[in-house]
Amino acid sequence: MTTSLLLIVQIVLVIILVIAVLLQKSSSIGLGAYSGSNDSVFGAKGPNSFLAKATFTVGLLFVINTITLGYMYTRTAQASVVDDIVTKTNVAAPAVKTTPAKEANATK
User: Fold this and answer.
1) I need a surface site. Which of 3, 52, 56, 83 has the fewest CB within 10 A?
2) In what helix (H) or strand (E) does residue 15 lie, and over which residues does it extend?
3) Mean pLDDT across the stretch 49-62?
């Protein structure tokens, strides 16, 4: 259940991270040209500072989620179904018969 939820969060973070990277300005402008004239919404410096902080935050969340998923999958991979099997037998162990020679050797 928990790993399924974290996997869904991972996919959402990937989509958000890709969009945030594509919206940033580069030497070839990229998709940053489509941000329009909403520079005043992001502050005086424009969307560059906001997008850089958002990209860093989403990237950090992505790395933390990846490490958590890796830890959880490693922990479940170490567990085995065979570890939970308990074999019960109704056979009694035979009693060991001691001979006088063995008793003499045991007391020395």
Assistant:
1) 83
2) helix 2-23
3) 91
